[in-house]
Records
---
Amino acid sequence: MADTLSTGPVHYERDGEIAVLTLDNPPVNALAKEVRVALARHLEKVVNDDEVTAIVICGAGRNLCGGADIREFNTPARDVKPMSRDLVNLLEDCPKPMVALIHGPTLGGGLELALGCHYRVAKADAQIGLPEVQRGVIPGAGGTQRLPRLIGLEAALDMITTGVPVNGEKALELGIVDAIVSGLRTAVAFARQVIDDNRGPRRISAMKVAGDPDENATIIANYRTKLAKTSRGLLAPFHCLESVANAVTLPFDEGWEREAEISRMAMASAESRSLVHAFFAERQVAKIPDIPADIALRPINKAAIIGAGTMGGGIAMSFANAGIPVTVIEASQENLDNGMQRIQGNYDATRKRGRLSDDEMAARLGRITPSTDYADMADADIVIEAVFEEMDVKQSVFAEIDRLARDDAILATNTSTLDVDAIAQATKRPESVLGTHFFSPANVMTLLEVVRAEKTSQDVVASVMAMAKAINKVGVVVGVCDGFVGNRMLAPYFRQGDFLVEEGALPQDVDRVIEEYGFRMGPFRVSDLAGLDISWAIEKRRAETRPADERFSPLLDSICQLGRYGQKTGAGWYRYEDGRTALPDPVVEELIVARSREMDLNRRPIGDEEILQRCLYSMINEGAKILEEGLAIRASDIDVIWLNGYGFPRHRGGPMFYGDTVGLRAVCDTLDRCHREWGDKWQPAALLRQLANAGSSFAEWDKRKVG
């Protein structure tokens, strides 16, 4: 390379007659205002340089460009000229051939930048896509107009309405890129070949969307029907569809202008604000205020799981899937064999769906070592207990783990409700003990509550948070209490469902309202799926400490006493004639009406708004109490827990963000009304009342408390 000139976040070099412009804005080369201004300046330079015949745009570090700088959203920096969409047009208007070298995750505005170039080459493992729909917006820098012109309507709709990226090889097959290259040298060689072939600029905006107009109209109609089923309650996928459809019916300039209008509308939506909140919350959750970012971690290169049941097997799969060897230990050979058969069956089902090759399945199974000898945990960096949810059992197992595990091993309990401090007392090293609350099925669910006990050391917490990322989980640090954060908030949510049916609703009424809000399943369907016997066991344990004057619904007891434990027994709150479809059951309705009579309640019609408020506001109130008690670091951490572990609709942002959205004053006033009618369980948390009175929000509390 010669004639090197570095200006801020964009570097200019010459390789003979080929100019190379390199974006250098770590960590992902986002199109911040400084990048846009510098790139436009260099572009003007090379256009006016008679010795330059073609230009290659590439990225330093891990990728070409990660897209718009999301930190600039809703700030003046976003409007600094040239804006991203104007910059893409500047590239396309260049009179000299421009080649984009795509490598790494080149997404959103990064791909739109490449689409403004006349040619594109990519490394085979590049990740290429337009994921804006996942943040409630649309590609706003020409993506909805250029991609369908380049690869056709149906392929473009697939990418834009789902946001799912493709690799370089697939991009070549679709026609997004023109060649697969090994790096900058071969990209420059491609640019020279363009000059030698006298091909000149090839502008996507001048193309037409391929296909017969009537056929394209049918494709659009079919997508609208499809989205009505797959994107219920969402706006962004339909905004994407509308803008892509404009590429078929409008000239480029008109479609491009309309894209900007739709983009502005989408960005101002509550859906977009919620999804952007979720995006940042999941990046913030790993920051633990009292733990230094550079703390020395305990390496976790090998794991041992005690218990080969459903949870233990799923946890073992999570490690094996991430390339980490794991030993699964059971007390009996029969239980061990059953557990390994279950693991193999799970992998085999994935293989049959075409999502796992034979070789990869064999490799993952090969990383799992079955054993009936507790001594085989001796070389593990972390030992995770996943036995029956009884304190005596877990303490007994931990005494054995303490005796046999390495001195520097991390000792973890997979419990959903039990006192981790009490479990740690069964060892001589409570500083090495913490909770790892995996969610079922553990090999699928992404949430991991990392339960920090009273004596857990900082390096243990930090090491397990790093481990969570390594095994593709979203780790969230929580404190010790009954149910930790997620299940503690789940209890009042379910309790309100029970109370609503006692007062006049039916299970299907409550589930319908919650599902229309955006949950995949309402509380009664979820209970049936999880197994009512599990909930029943927890309620029986909690009954020992329940105050005598506290309102409690015995409906779960009544249903379980009939041997109805949910889907697995063909009946629970609903009946399941085909094993899957929840059907209202007159038997349950009779139990509910009898309970109402027993309480001397006149059953009444209950509106959808009351159902939604009582279920969600009780949850938000419990979240405020959790924050008061210091059991979660941030309100946004609570949102991350509910988004990743409980199916809270992502486009609502999480329960605490939803509280901010409707206004904490409104939440507090509703809780006060319920408190007057039903008593102390409804009393607003002190923090909630404080924020409501100040006209503040949980987001503001996070900023003041954590920064």
---
Amino acid sequence: MRVMAQMSMVMNLDKCIGCHTCSVTCKQAWTNRSGTEYIWFNNVETRPGQGYPRGYEDQEKWRGGWELGANGKLKLKAGGRVSKLLRLFSNPKLPSIEDYYEPWTYEYDRLLNSPAQEQIPTAPPKSLLTGERVQISWSGNWDDDLGGTYAHKDKDPMLKGIEDKVKFEFDQTFMFYLPRICEHCLNPTCAASCPSGAIYKRSEDGIVLVDQDGCRGWRMCVSGCPYKKIYFNHRTGKAEKCTFCYPRIEQGEPTVCSETCVGRLRYLGLVLYDADAVTAAASVEDDTALYEAQKDLILDPFDPEVLDAASRAGIPHDWIIAAQKSPIYKLIKEYEVALPLHPEYRTMPMVWYIPPLSPVVDVVRDTGYDAEDAETLFAAIDTLRIPVEYLANLFTAGHVETVERVLYKMAAMRAYMRDINLGNAPREGIANAVGMDGASMEEMFRLLAIAKYDERYVIPPGHRESAHHLEGTVAECPVGEVANMSLPTESMGMPRPARGRTNLLNWDGHGRPDGLFPGRTAASPGGA
């Protein structure tokens, strides 16, 4: 058993109101460079819908993630080394700008500087890429509030096979919000797909990052990521992705999206897992068994054997304490209400979700029954406006029973706490019916409903003695901007590249900088 630590997140979808505050603050903090107009490290999707980029979940088209080969071993869906070598300069498995959207602004000068006239001046949209006027037809969340669902209802990959269970009449349809960031997977296909080895998973906390100096812009990582959470910056020629706000995490602070979340639906914490068992868990033959296999990877931080192995692995004592207090461990392992997004991709994602229950209360109330009564709620699960099969396609590779078990727990918590809040005697039978006791149900309610800041975010800061492994370094950049192009200046936690090599993106085109033409004795890939 090889114990490693992983920073993880759980989102409670019952509390997401789709305000996009997380998206806006993330973009303000992390995408202030040229070429990031269509990059959304954090986006909030409306379901049902095609997502962002359009139809990213259709792996028959995009070939992202892992699959089992004939020998039962994992292999990249997009192909191995030979296949990638043949497609190195022409990769057809990439979303186009139409799958994202052509970013635009408006001709505000027509409004601000328009002379007095009889007609009201307008500000037509124009492309941020070409500067020409464009007709807006798609954006980061075109499905928001069902705006585009009716025109594209058959294009949501998660509706495949359950079309007869989904009603699209306006007064009978459903919707919920799904915030998404990089999954920081235990078995990331982006790292396995990168020909230059620029993508790496930090050994100390499991955060997946891109070394901007090492990236050569092959874009195989974009193809390999089944969640399409790696973006190609068309101005810098580099891949960019969510960094899990690692400079904040190192200081013990939550990510920007978590800090600014209006609904307080995000939970951050450390979990311990068995790194030696990841490949075996990801290689489980039955897709519907992947959730249990991944859950079993997460180790009990109170187990003496795990504690001993963690200590021998060099995990600091305060990190072990943080793992014991982690809300992530409680929601995934103790209460078993959090589920991974698309475990069938076999990347072992570490951003988990509590599926939404809210619409069932509206349905029950509209029938005239007590919407918070336990028996009524349990009976209504099967008639949710959100089909359980749809949630199962998202979170359990189609295993309906697992999703139903989570929804029963959430419904039981509502009914149990309703009695307490009304001053009635709590009914232990409600908790027992879902495999819990009253005390644990009250603890789960407190965590999900009224948890304090330091209960939602249990983040141990980085240690000074290991600072040289954690701190980012700044690449030498004498120019600042070349040809109106913002340059990458952070190496994302990787050591400074060996001297003698020059990053051409940092060269102004004048003179002959050292390392531009390696000598004949240079032990570098470009040496002759």
---
Amino acid sequence: MDKTNLSATLLGRILLKTKGFFLVLVVLFAQLIPNLLVIPVAFFVQSNAEFTGQQFRQAGFFTAGMIVLGNIILLLWIHFTYRQVRIRLVKLLEGLQPSDLEEEKELQAWKQVTACGWRYGIASMVVAIVVEILPLLGFMSLSLKASTNQLLYVLMGAIVSVSVIIALGVLLIDRLLAPARALLIPQEFERQLSGSKGARILTKLLVVIFILILVSVLLVAPVGYHSTITVLVNGLIGTQGALRSLQYQILVAAVVALVLGFLLSLLLSRGVSDPIHQIIAVLDKVENGDLKQRTTVNATDEVGELAVHFNRMITRLDNLQGTLESEVAKRTDQLKATIEVSGVASTILDPDELITKVVNLISDRFGYYYSAIFLIDESGQWAVLKDATGSAGQTLKSRGHRLPLGGKSMVGTAIATRQARIALDVGAEPVRFENPLLPDTRSEIALPLTITGRIIGVLDVQSIQEAAFTEQDIDTLQGMANSVATALDNARLFRETQKSLEDLRIVQKEYVARTWFETTRESEGYDYTSPETIISSEELSMIDVPLTLREQIIGQLHLEGQQDWTPEEHSLVEAVATQAALAMENARLLEESRQTALRERVAAEIIGKVWSSPNTDLILQTAIKELGRALHADEATVELKPD
């Protein structure tokens, strides 16, 4: 409870003003109000004991003096015995936080303030017997020469008044100390439960019921006894007066018993019902979703323990909801980061750019201290750092940092064992490379980059917090590692495909250049000119458009004219040049196909004639004759020279 809440109630404002003397003030109030009961009890005793006026006055003054003395003793006992409560109230009201105070003294003050009621009751009983009842009986017996019956009436009246005064005082103290208990309550729920030393509800009920029965008996019994003695002593003469006196005293006793019973039951029931109503009110707010509500622990009995358990339950629900919300937010961020990494992996086909993007995304989105990707080199013996975050990562990359496979490093071990390596406390990890450029690392995880059962590298992530990687974090990072491995393999395949296509383009260009070079060489080139009359070149506008075939220039289209060529005419010429190059290539391929078909036909004819010859001489003659004819050779010979 803070000062704002204290100012909202009368008792809270009194506590703010009195501070350490609040407990003494509460006890003083609990003494004054119930002690007023002594007055009607004294007149009730006088009506039965029939003291003389002088005896009654002297006994009254002596009783008042003893009551004042007993109350002073109780106040001094409270002041010195509950010193820790006073000191802690002063410190809290002066602005110190509960965390600034010693926990042991906090628990001690809580135990004292919760046990104050019943301890006061026991102390009051002892003081009443020793300081008030016994001295009063001795004074009346020795000084006032009271009879046995008178002493008996005084004793019964003292028992009634002391019992009711103590019961009312205990209930009042428990109720009036509510703001002090709310201020002194420990922060931890276990301390609240272990330090609560108040009387149980059953004990309170038994005591109150016993006191009510005792008061009823002790108020009625003297009246009946006195009336009986009066009738026996005075005979029939005093019977009518005795009956009227008996009726009057019984009526007064009944009223007093009812009033006392009402006061005791009211205080007891309010001490139980008010905290329960407060719990119900807080529960209504909690049902509407306000988990920040807490009930004030006012009672020191089972209801108070119920309030503590209720607050602990709501606190756990609040923490659970906060944990779930933070976990959902964290998982959402991880999902977004995973989607972002997957998007980067699917759009970037350059492995180096991909690795740089991935390590920076992981560090930025998850807030990790260091992220790096190692790839296995061609020798298969080293894990080479490809990229890493931070100045340490750039320094390591510039040095060509690498780690041996299966060596004393988490990266090498993850590759060798094909399993993730997790160090929630790097100080306790036996197999780990201690990098001097990363002195703040407290936990580390190395995840293998696997594609179709083949490990190509490791994703290494480090954090400055111990046990920074939960099961969900590991699953998320492993999913990212798998996506990165797939993307790197795709990038590798894309690069190889691009290289193959580039080689194919180069081969095609060389093939086109060679074939057309041979074609033009055989025909001594192609040069066609329009047969129209050529005028002076100074009056001409010219267009030169290359004839391009598969990125290879095989010729040039040159146009001259007197007009200026428009962009549309330029486009027309370029389109015609493109189609002309394709048509020329098709014509060349057609001619090449014809030549190939002719050669195959001639070869087939020659082979057929050779196979039809019956002997070796005829085979040789046929072969040389047909080849010479087909190839237009001037001379053809064949020789057989076996080894």
